[in-house]
Design goal:
The protein is mainly alpha-helical. The chain is 84% helix and 0% strand. It contains three helices and no strands. The longest helix has 40 residues. The radius of gyration is 18 Å and the shape is elongated. It starts with a helix and ends with a helix. The mean pLDDT is 91.
């Protein structure tokens, strides 16, 4: 079942979440974050920059895991709700 859930998650991400990049609010937030990251990165030495890059990679991984967990919870809830309305 995990492979199926992963396939569904990837499908939704590829086909339905790609439109988020066209949302002006999303673009603004990403642009702001990238600008701030670049400003901070310029003030750091190589070792500090590597630490920042590693930290950001871990945060992206954690966010992906949170999104996957939320997707699984939503899928489970939809199954439960579906069971309530079927005779």
């Amino acid at each position: 079942m995990t492979e199926l859930i992963n396939a569904l998650y990837n499908f939704l991400q590829d086909h339905y979440l790609s439109g988020i990049s066209q949302d002006p609010g999303y673009e603004k937030a990403i642009g702001y974050a990238e600008t701030r990251q670049e400003l901070l990165s310029r003030q750091l030495n190589d070792s500090q920059r590597q630490l920042l890059t590693g930290m950001l990679a871990e945060l992206r991984l954690a966010h992906t895991m949170e999104q996957m967990r939320l997707f699984r919870a939503t899928l489970a809830l939809s199954r439960e709700l579906s069971g309530l309305v079927q005779p």
